[in-house]
Amino acid sequence: MENEHPKPPVAGVIYGNICYWIVLVGIIVAIVGMVMYFASDGYFDKEILLDGLWDGEVVEDIWADAAGVEDVPHGHWYLSASLLSNGDVVAMLGIAICCVAAVVGMWGALVGTVRSRERLYAVFALIVAVILTLSAVGIISLE
Amino acid sequence: MGSAGAERQMELSAIEFFFIFLAISILIGIVAVLGGVGGGVVFTPLMMGFTPIDSFIIRATGLLVAMAGSLVAARPFLKRGLANIRLLLLAAVPYAIFAVIGALLAGYIKETAGDTGEAIIRLALGILIIGIAVLILFGGRKVEYPDIKNVDSITERLALATSYYEQSLAKVVHYRVKRAPIGILLFCFVGLISGLFGLGAGWAMVPTLNLVMQAPLKVAAASSKVLIGIGDTAAVWPYMMDGAIFALFAVSCVIGMVIGTVIGAKIMLRIKAGFVRWLIIVIMAGAGIKLVLDGISRLGSS
Hints:
The complex is a heterodimer of chains A (143) and B (302). With 143 residues, chain A is mainly alpha-helical. Chain A has helices at residues 10-39, 46-54, 59-67, 87-115, 119-137. Chain A has one domain. Chain A has five helices and no strands. In chain A, α1 packs antiparallel against α4 (87-115). Chain B has helices spanning 14-35, 39-50, 55-79, 85-138, 153-158, 180-197, 202-212, 217-241, 247-268, 274-301; strands at residues 162-166, 171-175. In chain B, strands 1-2 form a two-stranded antiparallel sheet. The radius of gyration of chain B is 19 Å and the shape is globular. Chain B starts with 13 loop residues before the first helix and ends with a helix.
C-alpha cells in the first residue's frame, strides 16, 4: 500500500526515546542545580568565576581562583558525594546526564539492531557505542 | 564586549550574567533555525569573536549546545522514519572517531602551542566560518528528491535503501543512496572539524548526504541533525573531563539554545525567513572576519 506509513526501524525508535528522556531529565537537574547555586554558595565562587570567564582566563586558572583547586581534576569530579550539596555541582551533574544520553541510546540502538537481525549495523552500533563509552568514562581523554 | 585579555569592566552579578547569556542563546537558537543552520555553528564563532571568554571553554560549550539540541530533536525524526538509522550508524563510525581525534587535537594544541595555537585556531575557524557563509550564500543547490540511476556495489551491499511517509505529498517516498565510500571519507573530515572547533556540522553533513550520497533533502537534514548528537557526544566528553565546562555559562547557553530552537521552529511555520538567511550570512561573515583579524594580530604578537 503506497499510502501506508512504513514502520520505522526499532533501533532508531529506541535510540530516539532514550536520548529524549535522558536529556530532559538532565536539563531539569541542571535547572534545579542552578536555582540552588543562585540561592546559596557553590563549589565555584560565582563572582570569581565570572571574573575569570570575562578576563579570558584559561581553564586551569579559573579552577585555581574560583574553586581553589590547583590541579584540574580530570574525570567525573561532580560525582563526589561531598560536593553534591553545591548547586553548581548538581548543575554539572545535570549536564553530564545530558551528555550520557547518546551513550545509553547507542547501546539501546545496538539491542534494536540485534533484535531485528541487522548484523552489519549491529557491528556499527557496537563500534559507536564503545567509542562513546570510552569517551564518557574518560579512557579517551586529553590527559 | 572586549577582546581576550582585556581588563574586565563588567559589573554584572552571576544571575544577571546567566540571564543575559540565556537571552542571547535563545536569540541565536531562533535565528539559527530560521536561517536553516544548526545553533552550534552560529554560537561558537559568535562567542569566540565577540566575547573575551577563553576559546577552549567556548568550544566545549559549543559542542554541548549543538549536542543537546540535536538529541532532543532525534526522537520525532527517528519515530517518523525520516532519519535513516542505517545511514546514521554507517556515518557515525567515522564521524565519532574523527570528532574524538579533533577534540584530542584541540587539547594537544592548547597544552603545547600556547598563544600561537590559540591564534591559529582563531584564524582557521575564522576562515572556515567565512567559507560556510559563502557556502550558504552561493552553494544553495539542493536536490529535494535526487533521481538515482546507478548505485555502486558497496553501497548496494550496505542496503541503505528505505522509505518514509512524506506528509506534504501524502505518500510513501522510496529512496536509495549511492557513493557510500566517498561519504564515509567526507564524514572523517566533518568529524575532525566538529571536534576541533566545537561546531555542530550540519552545514557539511547535509550536502554530503544530499549532494554526494543523493539522499532526499529531508532525510539528509533529519539524519544530519541526529548525527550531530552522536558525534558531539563523543567529542564533548574529553572537554568535559578537562574541566572546560562551567555550569554558570553552559547551563544558560544549553537551555537558551533549546528554547530558541523550539520557538524558531514554531515561527518558521508562519513567516518567510528569507531575510533571516541574510542575517545569518552577515553574522557569520562578521564573526569570521573578526576571528581572522584576531588570529592575525595574536600571531603577530606571539
